[in-house]
């Protein structure tokens, strides 16, 4: 590590020639370095990276702030810091991501699980409360986070986990295998609801689909645009190509009184509600907000079949 940095803002100057890099000094220096590269959570990210390099838990660093680091430890840390400074997502560097009660493998084969998607699971679990013996499909499963959370926390005897990407489905399989919930998760490769067995209906269609407009590419952070799979991000000029297919497909795939639950872009709520209303097959369609108060989820309940016999 070399260079200089002004004291303050949580950063510090590097040690002199005869001084060691201590854990705390390195964390503070790295936080400032990452901030200069545009990383907003520099201090926290530096702690995670150093914990990885030292093969310890992040909180253990707080017990050894004054410990000098060896040259071997510094050599292990430097490439990790450089990767984050180049705006590679922290989760991809760590190879892990947290999602609700889960610790998941995470790499460039799938989107990084996000707190907003945890809220989508909340919507489904709230609807499922008091019900039993349910089946759900998670479309665009990626890491498998939604399917696993529903199987772990909800009254679901089966969750179909669908993805078009063979790579993403392989990652989901790695996350599912060996877990208690594995026998209740069915992994399927295919396009949306078409991947389900012919005639298969479910009680809940759940998805965090691609919903970013092509014109919004330039608005995305480098962590997203340069590293996460574009097939899981972009959905045409209006961002609704995949959502349209899910709304239409859910008419046939949902059992009466079944739930359609979608994560959406913050400006797409009205458009998605219009598309649901056009099907004349749902009730209780509404836009729900995330913890930041932004429109983030659309839920709707499948009507009983009212067509004349």
Throw out a few tags for this protein.
single chain; 7-stranded mixed beta sheet; alpha/beta; Rossmann fold; two-stranded antiparallel sheet; Helicase, Ruva Protein, domain 3; disordered N terminus; 309 residues
Highest-level CATH class of the largest domain: Alpha Beta
- Main-sheet strand order equals 5-4-3-6-7-9-8
Low-confidence stretches: 3-11
What is the helical fraction, as a range of percent?
25-40%
Question: Strand share of the residues?
Answer: 15-25%
Mean pLDDT level: 93
**Within the CATH hierarchy, at the fold level, what is the topology of the largest domain?**
Rossmann fold
Number of helices: 10
Estimated radius of gyration: 23 Å
List how many beta strands DSSP finds: 9
What is the structure about, briefly put?
It is built from ten helices and nine strands. It has 309 residues and is of the alpha/beta class. A hairpin with a 5-residue loop joins β8 and β9.
Chain-wise SSE layout:
Elements: H1 23-36, H2 42-54, H3 71-85, H4 90-94, E1 96-99, E2 102-105, H5 115-128, E3 134-139, H6 145-153, E4 156-163, H7 166-176, E5 185-189, E6 202-207, H8 222-225, H9 241-253, E7 254-263, H10 269-279, E8 282-289, E9 295-302
């Amino acid at each position: 590590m070399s260079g200089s940095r002004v004291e303050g803002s949580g950063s510090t100057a590097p040690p002199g020639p005869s001084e060691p890099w201590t854990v705390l000094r390195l964390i503070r220096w790295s936080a400032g370095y990452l901030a200069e590269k545009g990383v907003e959570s520099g201090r926290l990210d530096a702690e995670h990276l150093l914990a990885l390099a030292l093969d310890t838990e992040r909180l253990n660093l707080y017990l050894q702030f004054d410990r000098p680091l060896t040259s071997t430890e510094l050599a292990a840390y430097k490439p990790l810091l450089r990767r984050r400074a180049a705006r590679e997502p922290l989760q991809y560097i760590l190879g892990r991501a947290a999602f609700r009660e889960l610790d998941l493998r995470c790499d460039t084969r799938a989107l990084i699980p996000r707190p907003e998607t945890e809220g989508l699971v909340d919507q489904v679990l709230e609807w499922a409360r008091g019900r039993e013996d349910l089946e759900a499909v998670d479309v665009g499963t990626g890491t498998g986070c939604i399917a696993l959370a529903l199987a772990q926390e909800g009254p679901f005897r089966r969750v179909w986990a669908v993805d078009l990407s063979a790579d993403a489905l392989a990652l989901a399989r790695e996350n599912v295998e060996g877990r208690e919930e594995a026998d209740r998760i069915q992994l399927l490769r295919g396009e949306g609801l078409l991947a389900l067995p012919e005639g298969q209906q479910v009680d809940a269609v759940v998805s965090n689909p691609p919903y970013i407009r092509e014109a919004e590419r330039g608005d995305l952070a480098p962590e997203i645009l340069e590293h996460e799979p574009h097939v899981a991000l972009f959905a045409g000029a209006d961002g609704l190509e995949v959502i349209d297919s899910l709304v239409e497909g859910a008419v046939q795939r949902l059992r009466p009184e079944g739930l359609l639950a979608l994560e959406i872009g913050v400006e797409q709520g009205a458009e998605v509600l219009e598309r649901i209303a056009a099907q004349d097959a749902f009730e209780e369609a509404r836009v729900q907000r995330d913890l930041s108060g932004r429109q983030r989820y659309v839920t709707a309940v499948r009507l009983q079949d009212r067509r004349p016999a």
